[in-house]
Design brief:
Blueprint lengths: L2 E5 L2 E4 L4 E8 L7 E7 L6 E6 L6 E3 L7 E6 L4 E6 L8 E8 L2 H6 L5 E2 L3 E6 L1
Amino acid sequence: QLQLVESGGGLVQAGGSLRLSCAASGRRLENFVMGWFRQDPGKEREFVSAISWSSASIIYADSVKGRFTISRDNAKNTVTLQMNGLKPEDTAVYFCAADDTWATVTSHRGINYWGKGTLVTVST
């Protein structure tokens, strides 16, 4: 069974940067499409980014495009999200997610594997 653990969250000022990591265990990550989502209290979970098995396909939400970069290292079984130019509206709990199809991750539906999340707080 695939398990995902996020790390790297914290408190930063607007304009700052953070690098989130997702460590996988139990399964080979190379067999999964990976994604990052985020959620503020009282809001629906929001898609942030997705990356395909070999990084050939990458997509970002419009709100983060140009500021965030997703990457993966299948040999190390990790996925990262480099976040630059952070804004207060980026404040949320960030979740790492995995599934075996591109459609489920990019559609935000039916994703089978989730991490517990890491909190990112961007101050004004």
